[in-house]
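SUBJECT: protein chain
CONTENTS: sequence, structure tokens:
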Amino acid sequence: MFLKTEIQESQHVRRSKCGKEHSYTRKKTVAVFRCDNCDELFTRDLKHVDRKRLSNNYFHCCSNCDTKRFAH
């Protein structure tokens, strides 16, 4: 079951050629799903999810469940 999309921020530090450290942030949009088999929450990067699957017309299965067994 598709629940929502959210933005995750991650902070990183890189070192310049002169040796100074600079901090920067990266933002990533993720889709939050609930497994239709075991009801566990899981996320997927929005770049790797087809846009038409962001609805409840499709079944969503987490990585812990066997998708082939769930399909039968």
Remarks:
- The two ends are 18 Å apart (CA to CA).
- The first helix runs from residue 67 to 71.
